[in-house]
Amino acid sequence: MTELDLLGKDYYSNESSIKYWSISQYKRFRECEARALAELQGDWTDTRDNTALLVGNYVHSYFESKKAHEEFKGQNGSEMISTRGTTKGQLKKDYLVAEQMIEALKNDYQFMKYYQGKKEVAITGLLGGVEFKGKIDCLNVDCGYFVDIKTTKGPVDDKVLEWPRARLLV
Question: What pLDDT, on a 0 to 100 scale, did the predictor assign at position 156?
Answer without folding.
Answer: 60
